[in-house]
Amino acid sequence: MINSETYSSLHERLSRWLLLSCLMAVGIGQSFIFTSLPPIGREIGLADVRISTLITAGAATFVVAAFLWGGIINRIGRVRSVIIGMSSYAVTITLTGFVLQEALAKHLSAEETYYLVFGLRIIFSLGIAGVLPSVQTYLIAHTDIKHRSSTIAMIGAAFSIGMILGPAFASLLSSLGLTAPFYIIAFLAGSIALLVVFFVKDTKHVRQFVKPPKINWLTQPVMPFLCMSSLSILSMTGVQQIMSFLIQDRFQLDVAQTTHQLGFAMMTMSCFSILVQMILVPRFQLGVVTLIFSGVGVGVLAQLAFIFLDSYAGVLFAMGLFGAGFGFLFPGIVTAQTLLVKDDQQSRLASMNASMQGLGAALGPVILASLYQLGQLVPFFGLMFGLIFMLVVFMYCKSKSGHAF
């Protein structure tokens, strides 16, 4: 017989992994579109600029929607929010696949397809914007403070794994048909949503029927950490954007060679980031101060490696360091945020943080690509000074607030 304590522990563990699977699925849904949509869009006659606007519209909607989800989560509950988000994900991705399939069969014009997919991308982003803050708030509520940084690290790792798997799924599944990835990934999301319905219960959530007072985030002590969160995501997406330029320019490669070498560099960065977040942070139970100091230190070393190591092996080494630095920095920043607000503000904080991360993800490629135009090494000097500035701000905030991170 399984006693009640053992059953409760198993149920908590199952709930945890199902919710982390939701984040992995969201990562897949966010990234596979970069591989699947461009070739299909060209096939049905959409201009490259229009294809880009479909992706940009989704990203912009995510930034706004994530901010709004905090109050919704408080009212309807964390688990319900996850279910709504994942169900919306499954339905909209299925419909997107169907619309593109009809367009490929010439049953829809390129113009009709564009507007239909545009609308579906908006609805998709409105739904998934609530998944990350809901999952983060749930896991924080069901984890003691001592293990909070480990929990945040697992959240980041789950999403990162999904971002890696998305393009891989799209490439492999497209052999079954150009729109096959849409249906299979939607089925995956729908299946996870059903499992959450049956197996995840939230006994610690107290629904707020009275509208809580507004929070002026600009005056809150957590605001510098929200900016740090945005800056960390900005640096990650920015480096991903300029890395193809750097590899092609530094080693004088053609497009095919650049794509091949870029794949290895991206994989190296992602693997080290996941390694740190899934193994090192949980294994050693690292605190906020250690995480942020380690993240900034390793991140600065990565920028120096980009600047001074000219070989391709040097680029891989720098990308590995950069991924590891992010793996330390991200959970440190988010854990610090959660320690600075009350329990009843966690969902609104998580929503605000997701919105700030979305803003950083949108600005990163533009800012670092612009810096790259000034000089091949300018972005790395900029990132190095940005990391050092982030550390100075953290030390100032820590001394001013007196909070024992």
UniProtKB/TrEMBL annotation:
* TM helices/strands, residue ranges: 17-37, 49-70, 82-101, 113-140, 152-174, 180-200, 221-242, 262-281, 288-309, 315-341, 353-372, 378-397
Keyword set for this entry? Membrane, Transmembrane, Transmembrane helix
Q: Which Pfam families match?
A: MFS_1
- Residues in Major facilitator superfamily (MFS) profile domain copies: 1-400
- Judging by the UniProt lineage, the source's domain of life is Bacteria
Alphabetized InterPro entries for the sequence: MFS (IPR011701), MFS_dom (IPR020846), MFS_trans_sf (IPR036259)
Q: Which GO terms describe its molecular function?
A: transmembrane transporter activity
- What is the name listed in the Swiss-Prot or TrEMBL entry for this protein? Predicted arabinose efflux permease, MFS family
